[in-house]
From TrEMBL:
Keyword DNA-binding carried by entry: yes
Keywords: DNA-binding, Transcription, Transcription regulation
Signal sequence extent: none
Descriptive protein name: AraC family transcriptional regulator
HTH araC/xylS-type domain boundaries: 171-268
Entry-linked Pfam families: ExsA_N (PF22200), HTH_18 (PF12833)
Top-level taxon of the source organism: Bacteria
Gene3D superfamilies, per the entry: Homeodomain-like (1.10.10.60)
InterPro entries: ExsA-like_N, Homeodomain-like_sf, HTH-like, HTH_AraC
Keyword Glycosyltransferase: no
């Protein structure tokens, strides 16, 4: 079965996937509050991995690079309720709230697993997915505001994340790319996250690395894949998903072209 999504509003959805796995590499424009009903998700960030299962609740901040791999588990589909916390909705919420922002705002995934208040809030949305008529906007606003208030009650520091509406500023290109090359993002998105237009990104990249971004990214991803196969003893099907390749056949072809042998020869 293909990936299925049911929206009750543009900001609240129920997603369900029953196939073997679903992989995507994303940078969300909105903060994403997610409650797991069933299945398993592995989220790979630049310096950390997370595994979430049934009952887990977590927040993925906007503009956060991540590889997301979703699996069915225990005979049940991968099923989640997802709430988009949009900038517009959050601006309205924080319009009359004064927040003293920290200079450095954490962009790491935040876990609120099994918290009864959040679980109750998100579980209460389930019946609405069976509505035939349009879901009333004022009720959607109430549910989203309820979730934001619960997050603020659970985590006093969450205001620094939710009320930060700044766009990415110009940052060190070399440091960012060395930490995030494994994410298969369009070059425009890499540029945006470093505060650069595509043309400026390409110019600065060639100046820093003395080669094209595409060639450098392929080389770095192949080096990472080789390390994971040899040192971590991972299987090729795991490696291609975690090192930025589109699919297994493309990965195998590029790997053999670079090293002279297929990745399967390194599997013990």
């Amino acid at each position: 079965m293909e990936f299925q999504t049911k929206y009750i509003t543009s900001e609240i959805k129920l997603s369900c996937y029953e196939d073997k796995l679903f992989k995507t590499e994303v940078v969300f424009d909105n903060h994403m509050l997610i409650w797991f009903i069933s299945g398993e998700t592995k989220i790979i960030e630049a310096n950390k991995e997370h595994v979430f299962n049934a009952g887990d609740i977590f927040l993925i901040p906007r503009n956060q690079l991540a590889t997301i791999i979703n699996y069915p588990k225990d005979g049940l589909p991968h099923k989640t309720v997802v709430m988009h916390l949009s900038a517009k909705r959050l601006r309205d919420f924080y319009a009359d709230i004064e927040v003293k922002h920290k200079v450095q705002v954490s962009q790491q995934i935040l876990s609120f697993s099994h918290h009864p208040l959040l679980k109750s809030c998100l579980a209460s949305l389930i019946p609405y997915f069976d509505l035939q008529e349009t879901f009333p906007e004022h009720i959607a606003a109430l549910k989203i505001n309820e979730a934001i208030n619960i997050l603020r009650f659970i985590d006093p520091e969450i205001d620094n994340v939710l009320s930060d509406f700044r766009e990415p500023g110009k940052i060190d290109l070399v440091d960012f790319m060395e930490k995030n090359y494994m994410f298969n993002m369009p070059l425009e998105k890499f540029g945006y996250l470093m505060g650069r237009s595509l043309s400026t990104f390409n110019r600065d990249f060639r100046k820093a690395f003395n080669r094209s971004p595409q060639r450098w990214l392929t080389q770095k991803r192949l080096e990472l894949a080789h390390y994971q196969l040899v040192e971590k003893h991972k299987k090729p099907v795991e490696v291609y998903m975690e090192s930025g390749f589109e699919d297994l056949s493309h990965f195998s072809f590029a790997f053999k072209k670079e090293f002279g042998y297929a990745p399967s020869t390194l599997v013990k």
